[in-house]
Design goal:
It holds the Pfam family CN_hydrolase. The protein has 270 residues and is an alpha/beta fold. The protein contains 6 helices and 12 strands. It starts with 6 loop residues before the first strand and ends in a 14-residue tail after the last helix.
Length: 270
Amino acid sequence: MVGSGMVCVAVAQFSAGTDKDANLAAMGDLLATAADRGARLVVFPEYSMYATRTLDAGIGTSAEPLDGPYATRVAELAARHHVHVLYGTNETLPDDHRVSNTLLLLGPDGTRLGAYRKVHLFDAFGFTESDRVRPGDPAELLTFTVDGVTFGAMTCYDLRFPELARQLVDAGAQALVVPAQWAPGPQKEDHWRLLTRARAVENTAYLLAAGHCAPTGAGNSVIVDPMGVPVAGLAEAPGIACATVDPDRVATVRERLPALRHRRYAVRGG
C-alpha cells in the first residue's frame, strides 16, 4: 500500500528493434504488468518506437510526428491502464532531414502532456548521433507532476551532464527520469551505475533510469533513492522494476544533507 503523498513508479526494460508492432506489443505487456502493481508512472527507454545498435538511416524513415500512429496507440494504452507514460521516440522535423530524439509524456487519459527533445547528442565512443539527430533547445526542459510529486526528464547521454540535472532540480524536481539506450562497451555499465547514483546523491533526488536490454542496450535499469541507494532494478532480462517515490524522504534527506542550500555557484541554461 502506497501512503499519502507517495507515488508508485516503474521503469520498464526491453529490447526495442525495427518492428514497431513488436515494440508496441512489448510496451503494452510491460505497461499492463506495471499498472497491475500499482504504478502511476511508467518510464520506458529512449528510442522505444524504433531502435538499432547502430544509428542507421532507418531512424529517419521510421520517424513519426508526435500525433502519429505510434503515439496514438501508446496513448490508448496509457488511457486503458490509467497511468502516466514517458517513452522515447524518433520525431519527424518538418524543416530538417534529421529527426529529434524525443521523450513523449502521456497522461492517464492518453492526453499528450509534454515532450523533451534530447539536448546532448551521443557523439562519443565512435558514435555520431548528431549525423541523424538534431539537438533540442537547452531552454525547453520538461518537468511534470504526478500525484503531487515533481519529476524532471533527461535522456541517456544527458546523464553525463550534471548541469542539466541541476537545472531540473532547481525547477522543482524531486525525482529525475532518464530513458536511455545505454550501449554496452568497456566500462560503460560501470559508468551507468556510477552516474545514476551520482546524479541522485548530488541532487538529493530520486532517479528512475529505464534502458534497453541486449542486444540493443546494456540493461541494468534502476530506481535510486535520494541518498544514492538503489531500491529497485533489473539486470539483463526484460521486465519492470517498481518502487515508491516519497516526497517526505526527499525533504528529510535534503534537511540532513543540505548541499543544495550550500551551493556557491549557480547553473545557467543555454
